[in-house]
Design goal:
heterodimer; A: 692 residues; alpha+beta; 4-stranded antiparallel beta sheet; B: mainly alpha; Helicase, Ruva Protein, domain 3; 7 helices
Chain lengths: 692, 151
């Protein structure tokens, strides 16, 4: 029954999305308000319909309906309830359905909230968003249907998966299927996996809203800043989720994949990073259009490129075209996804070129000065796009081209990325430090120089202290320098703003800071995001340049010196069985620092039969992670081989992520929710109509 | 325990060579971290624990114990398995291809930035002031309608 309910709801949502896409365009072209409203209602209906389909699948997972092929493939009778829920996105079919639900949530939210304020853009916005949704629902329904059931032929014994009963076939009993059920991929049995995929999906699909509005602006000819005003917050929300997804993905890799790091420059990781880079460029660049009416073509290009990167990333992740740890999602959807990516990108480019040639995307202001904020934002865009190109090339371009045209397979790995990206990241941090101090239109060099004095002095002082107290290399010195500069600029700007309030209004410092953020959420939320990126940068530099890695074989009861400070004592080994059937091989180790016992850790091997996972034991402090993996052991000989990592400052990556999320919340939070007394005074906006 | 026996068997293969020069796991790691698994694409050899990778690592250990340098070991693997075993191709053409495109991409981005500055400098400003509120284009039919109504 659940399969039928899910199937009907999924089919209806497909029909509704196609109907909405078609009818809203026809309604707009024929100026038929009723058709447009009908299209809107159909698009809103996709969300509850997909909600019903997802709930049906979730109930099937929780109630062990193994006759449904998806339930059989991702759970078994030993699977705990927690993982039955995460199994919803544990494989291609379920994750595609969940993807559709998140996309419909975004589209329904955008239509619901922007219907009145952006009425003129709505028909085409609905059309583009629903076309995207219809494609993904179509994929789920026709190629990766999670509601297909197992059928068997009583005479031939042949088994098959199908949505409807084939002639002469019967449903096998649930008990028979339960005995052979697969269970969830061991890599996905981790707390991080309950949050990481939904966050990443929300980040990916959220960009459908800015894309929909931008394409609607191009299609309808309303090329004012209306589409930007309508989508800025949506873009920030999508960016927030994408950032969260990337950070949680890093944490999951650090905890589960067992290689001592959080970012392996894996092509699929990079595929998720590309929309983040282009989206970040868009979020910055769009401010120039809002403030100065410039970069109209570029912003359209960026929003199109961001969604195109989302579609490409989805294709790369789900098609199995590039082998990686994410290739569990390989299936037949590759070609349709590639085609859809090409078609949507082509439509966007054609519309953009058409409007550009008609001269409808002309800038409204002229260039004022090399040190203006506009110029620095353009440079910032150059850096983000150069990073995106370099990462795309290393992950996809070079391997594909060398294979296609030179007949040689190559892999560009960590070595490539560690040579190409650091200079670009350094340039990004330098601009992050300078741009907030520049003014719109023009900035005098001496004024900018004066504003940089205090942050530069603070940076130099910090670097001097670090050089005296910790080991340092030239690369680390430069890296820390540019990152600290960006951080001090953000901090000094916040302190200056609060100080002005303290002096002028006699407010206390906490009060002044809170009101400062409340009155200019975008600016100070942005500074907070910069601080988050700075803290992440410190963590990345520390854990990359100064990471110490060694492999040791230790006898039971013996102590092994790791470096001048640390030693490890192998205390115990135990073997047990977990509730989900995996065999646990747990070692107990004591960490000694300068001879003193500071912590006990338990690195272990989780043996799932078909796969073994190496789960680290770690002692975390703000200074470093003492991270140990159990490589292998011999119980009889009392020997165990360990891989030991000392990862300096690695926890700053996670703390920086939290600061970044908090800053984005502040920047994106609706003004209506902020108490009125905290609002910045608004100048009445003059429209051209009023001016005329 | 089976992984231990696999590892042990592989280690035993290297005993005669190991007798020539003791090799630490860290030395093997230093070479393996920049090489790629032949089976699991895009997974560094160092982190991969499948049987083929264990064999490759045992082979690296063996070569080190025979006194081969890192460059010689890597060159030997490339000769046998191709450029995909390393994280940056050693073939000059492929190496150029790998780095030229990101460099060209950066140059193109910078040229685009310069082009944008020059365009801004040349162009006369439009009469309108950009604002965060709605702006009406000159050929906006809604604006024409409103102006007709006003006059």
């Amino acid at each position: 029954m659940l399969a039928e309910i899910g199937l009907v709801a999924l089919t209806l949502s497909f029909v509704a999305s196609v109907y909405a896409a078609v009818l809203s365009v026809i309604g707009e072209r024929r100026h038929n308000e009723n058709w447009v409203i009908s299209g809107r209602n159909a698009s809103l209906a996709t969300f509850p319909l997909l909600g019903v389909a997802v709930v049906a699948l979730l109930i099937a997972l929780l109630t062990e309906q193994y006759q449904i092929g998806y339930v059989w493939s991702v759970t078994d009778p030993q699977t705990p309830v927690f993982y039955r829920v995460t199994a919803l996105w544990g494989s291609q079919k379920g994750s595609l359905l969940f993807w559709c639900l998140t996309m419909s949530a975004f589209t329904a939210g955008a239509i619901w909230l922007n219907w009145r304020s952006d009425r003129r853009l709505m028909p085409y916005t609905i059309a583009f968003m629903m076309a995207s949704l219809a494609f993904f629902i179509g994929l789920t329904l026709f190629l990766e249907n999670p509601f297909e059931r197992w059928w068997f032929h009583p005479e031939t014994g042949e088994e098959m998966l199908a949505a409807f009963a084939p002639a002469g076939y019967l449903l096998p009993t649930n008990e028979v299927l339960a005995a052979s059920a697969n269970g969830l991929n061991p890599l996905l049995r981790h707390f991080g996996m309950i949050i990481h995929p939904p966050m990443l999906y929300l980040g990916f699909v959220g960009f459908v809203v800015p894309f929909g509005f931008a394409m609607a602006a191009l299609a309808s000819g309303d090329l004012t800043t209306n589409w930007i005003r309508a989508t800025r917050r949506w873009a920030l929300v999508a960016w927030l989720f994408l950032s969260l997804g990337l950070i949680l993905g890093g944490r999951w890799a650090y905890d589960v994949l067992g290689w001592g790091g959080y970012w392996g420059w894996d092509p699929v990781e990079n595929a998720a990073f590309l929309p983040w880079l282009v989206g970040t460029a868009f979020i910055h660049s769009v401010m120039i259009q809002q403030k100065r009416g410039m970069l109209k073509v570029w912003n359209m290009f960026l929003v199109l490129a961001t969604f195109s990167a989302v579609l490409f990333g989805t294709f790369a992740t789900r098609s199995g075209v590039i082998e990686s740890v994410h290739s569990f999602a390989r299936s037949e959807v590759g070609f349709p996804m590639l085609a859809f990516w090409g078609i949507m990108t082509l439509i966007g480019v054609v519309l953009l070129i058409w409007r550009w040639n008609r001269g409808e995307l002309r800038d409204e202001h002229q260039f004022a000065g090399l040190l203006s904020r506009e110029t620095l934002f353009v440079l910032n865009n150059v850096i983000f796009m150069a990073l995106a190109v370099a990462i795309f090339w290393g992950s996809f371009g070079a391997p594909i081209i060398s294979e296609l045209f030179m007949g040689t397979e190559i892999s560009l790995g960590v070595e490539y990325f560690m040579q190409v990206t650091p200079p670009l990241f350094a340039a990004m941090y330098i601009l992050m430090g300078i741009a907030p101090l520049s003014a719109w239109s023009a900035t005098a060099a001496h004024r900018l120089g004066r504003a940089l004095v205090l942050p530069s002095l603070l940076t130099l002082a910090t670097l001097t202290i670090l050089t005296l107290l910790t080991p340092m290399t030239l690369v680390a010195w430069i890296g820390y320098g540019v990152v600290f500069l960006a951080g001090y600029v953000a901090l000094v700007e916040m302190v200056r703003g609060a100080q002005a309030r303290v002096r002028a209004r006699g407010e206390s410092w906490p009060q002044a800071l809170i009101r400062l953020f409340g009155r200019n959420q975008r600016r100070y939320g942005g500074y907070m995001v910069h601080l988050g990126v700075v803290v992440i940068g410190l963590g990345v530099i520390g854990s990359t340049i100064f990471q110490y890695e060694t492999r040791r074989v230790i006898s039971l009861g013996e102590t092994e010196r790791i470096d001048e400070q640390y030693a490890l004592r192998y205390d115990d080994l135990s073997v047990g069985l977990a509730a989900d059937g995996r065999e646990l091989h747990i070692t107990t180790l004591s960490i000694l620092q300068n001879g003193e016992h500071i912590a006990t850790i338990r690195p272990r091997l989780d043996d799932f039969g078909e796969m073994t996972m190496h789960i680290a034991g770690a002692h975390s402090t703000l200074a470093n992670d003492f991270y140990v993996l159990l490589d292998t052991y011999d119980e009889e000989a009392g020997l165990a081989a360990f891989i030991v990592y000392i990862n300096p400052l690695v926890n700053l990556v996670w703390w920086g992520g939290l600061i970044l999320i908090l800053g984005t919340f502040i920047a994106a939070w609706p003004r209506e929710v902020v108490p009125a007394h905290l609002h910045a005074p608004q100048k009445p906006a003059k429209t051209r109509l009023q001016t005329a | 325990m089976r992984w231990f026996y696999v590892l042990l068997a592989l280690l035993l293969l290297t005993i005669p060579a190991a007798a020539q020069r003791p090799v630490t796991e860290d030395e093997v790691h230093a070479i393996a971290e920049d090489m790629y698994c032949p089976v699991c694409e895009n997974e560094p050899l160092d982190d991969c624990r499948n049987v083929t990778c264990m064999q490759w690592k045992a082979e690296i250990r063996n070569m080190l114990s025979q006194g081969m340098t890192e460059d010689q070991i890597v060159a030997d693997f490339i000769e046998r398995y191709g450029q995909q075993v390393v994280s940056i191709p050693r073939d000059p053409t492929l190496l150029f291809l790998s780095f030229a495109i990101p460099a060209a991409g950066t140059v193109i981005m910078i040229v685009m930035g310069v082009f944008t500055f020059l365009r801004w400098r040349r162009r006369q400003p439009m009469t309108a002031q950009a604002s965060s509120g709605p702006v009406f284009t000159p050929d906006d039919p809604y604006r024409r309608q409103v102006e007709q109504d006003i006059h």
